[in-house]
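#struct-pred
JK: can someone run the complex with tetrahydrodeoxyuridine? inputs below
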Amino acid sequence: MRTLNFRAKIRVCNDKELNQTEKNLIDVAKEATERAYAPYSGIKVGAAVLLANNEIISGNNQENAAYPSGLCAERTALFYANARFPDVAVDTIAVAACVKGDFTNEPITPCGGCRQVILEAQIRYNHPIQIILYGKKKIYFVEKITDLLPLCFSSTI
Ligand code: THU
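RT: done, C-alpha cells with the ligand placed:
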C-alpha cells in the first residue's frame, strides 16, 4: 500500500499585503453581499469575478424556499460572467460573507460544488484562477483552484 500526499498552497495575508486590484475586488464582493437573497440561512455571500478583459462581474447567493433550488454567490457570479463574456478567461474571484450585518472574522471558503465550477472555468480557459477569500481577521489567497480541490474530477481523464 502507498499513500498519496497532496500539497496545497494557501497564503494567509492581510489587506496591506494585497495590491489595489485585489483590494478593489474584495470591496466589490463585500458590496455584493448587500444584494444577496438569504432569508433562510441569514448568510449573505458576495462574489466578484475579475475577467482577463478587466471587466468585473459580481454576484451573490440566491436562496429558495425549496432549499436545493438556490445558488451560491460564486456560481451566480461565474455563470453570469461566462454568460456575458463566453470567450474571456476568468482571472480572479473574491468572496466575502456577512452575517447579521457584520463581515465574518474568518474567510468564507467555497463549497464543493462551487470549487468544481471554478475548476471547470480554469480548464475551459486554460488559465489559473486566483481565489481571494475575505475574513476580517485574515484573508486567504489561493493561486489556483486545484489547491482547494485535490484529486478533482475532470472530463479530460
Ligand atoms: N454559500 C455561498 O454563497 N457560497 C459559499 O461559498 C458557501 C455557502 C451560501 C449558500 C447558502 O445560501 C448560504 O450560503 C448558506 O449555506
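RT: quick notes.
The beta strands are 10-13, 43-51, 56-60, 90-99, 102-103, 130-134, 139-142.
The longest strand covers residues 90-99.
JK: thanks, will look after standup
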